[in-house]
Amino acid sequence: MRAPRSTVALTLSQARRMALEAQGLGAAVAPFGIEKEGALRAIEHLGYVQVDTISVIQRAHHHVLWSRVPGYGPEHLHTLQAEDREVFEYWSHAASFLPMRDFRFSRPLMRSFANGQTHWGEPAPEMDRAMRSILTRLRRNGPFQARDVIAEQTVNGGWGSFTKIERRALHELWMQERVMIRSRAGFEKVYDLPERVMPEGVERRLPSAREVAIFRVRQAVRAHGLVREREISHLATAASRREIRAALDFLLRRGEVVEVRVETHPEQPCFGTPEALNAMYSPLPPRVRFLSPFDNLIIQRARLRWLFGFDYQLECYVPALKRRCGYFVLPILVGDTFAGRLDATAERSAGVLRIKTLLLEPSSLDSIFSRAMLDEALHDFAAFNNCTEVRLEPQATKAATALDRS
User: Fold this and answer.
1) Are strands 180-185 and 144-145 parallel, antiparallel or unpaired?
2) What residues pair up with 190 in beta bridges, in sequence order?
3) Looking at 128-236, which runs of residues are DSSP E strands?
């Protein structure tokens, strides 16, 4: 007979603390350790760190790790990928750095692409020939960057970065596990054959659908503290959602996962770990953090709204005249509250972090934090962006005056 399932009731504040501690953004000073080893532990715990091409400030994959790992620098991620081979790049919900220890759980997607799935529509007729040419060149000449692929022929349609058929062929080969990204030179990918990139001893056995579902559930509750089922399976197929539902039930019966209800949304079951429940009692200091738009905590906007009451949109894809906050707006997290939004640009040659917009939520103006705390956080963020000075443009200065009370 199945044991009755108990449910833990949480206040909204307790739920937020569970989520923040699980994400490495809670009370602990160095939850994953420091520098390179801390970055590896963070990636393994979070499950992925999204790669980002936008560089008006430090790129998102570095920003996410810097927010959680004291002493982190971009060179640490490079070493983990190119030298230690502890992380690899592949598709998660987007292109991401993933823990090498979890490699086998990317293989079902790799297999589906090897069996004919493509990322952006039907392949051009010349694709097979281009792919064979690339593989031959890699075997003969060793690793190279996409910029080294020279061709006159183009492919119409699709993503603009794949105008050359060889560039799209490289991407499809990567999705099929026939090439891997061994490192980056600056931000440019360096491609090579998998047998020259994969370290010895990595488990490559293709997991079953049930194994993948259990892995996804464990990863989600570990990384997020508490999640709803829809947040575990938001990108899953109908068949995968059924497997995830079965995996949840299995882990609940084992006691690895517990069901919780949040007072503000009692009708919605959430799931977490027994260990995460301990975090709900941890007091959170009012530390000011500027998070990347692609940060793991906020990437699911619907979850951000129900758990933190924060309605956020990244506006770099919105026409300039329709933007309300700015091009690349960063959510400002203070303690367990999203207190505002910051639009900044790092002018690295001049050593200046330029603040274009600083918008504060009305509730944050009472007692959450002070101007001194904001200034300290801005100068730390400037240093991370290789800047030595912070300059506030007039409209940003006006928005910040409400904090002049420290």
Assistant:
1) unpaired
2) 145, 183
3) 144-145, 180-185, 188-192, 226-227
- Name, in order, each residue with C-beta under 8 angstroms of 216's C-beta and a sequence gap of 6 or more: 232, 233, 236, 244, 247
* pTM: predicted TM-score of the whole model, two decimal places: 0.91
Separation of alpha carbons 233 and 213, rounded Å: 9
Pairing state of beta strands 288-290 and 7-10? unpaired
Q: How many other β-carbons are positioned within 10 Å of the β-carbon of residue 185?
A: 12
Q: Select from 377, 192, 392, 195 the least CA-distant residue to 291.
A: 377
Would you call 87 helix, strand, or coil by DSSP?
A: strand
How many C-beta atoms lie closer than 10 Å to residue 36's C-beta? 20
Instruction: With CA atoms as reference, report the closest residue to 90 among 99, 102, 98.
Output: 98
Strand partners for 89: 97
- Dihedral (C-alpha) 388, 393, 394, 395: value to the nearest 10 degrees? -130
Give CA–CA dist 151/131, Å, rounded: 13
Distance, in Å, from the CA atom of 344 to the CA atom of 354, rounded to the nearest integer, reads: 6
Q: What is the pLDDT along the chain (406 residues), one digit of tens a residue?
A: 344 467 889 999 999 999 999 999 998 889 999 999 999 999 999 999 999 999 999 999 999 999 999 999 999 999 999 999 999 999 998 999 999 999 999 999 999 999 887 776 666 678 888 899 999 999 999 999 887 875 434 444 443 334 478 888 899 999 999 999 999 998 999 999 999 999 999 999 999 999 999 999 999 999 999 999 999 998 888 889 999 999 999 999 999 999 999 999 999 999 999 988 987 777 888 899 999 999 999 999 999 999 999 999 988 888 888 888 888 999 999 999 999 999 999 999 999 999 999 988 776 655 566 788 889 999 999 999 999 999 988 876 555 444 444 3
Cα 385 to Cα 73, 263, 280, 374, distances in angstroms: 10, 40, 33, 16
* Cβ–Cβ < 8 Å for 170, 128: no
Q: Is the backbone of residue 24 left (phi > 0), alpha (psi -120 to 50) or beta?
A: left
Cα gap 92→298, rounded to integer Å:
16
Please say whether the beta carbons of 43 and 97 come within 8 A. Answer: yes
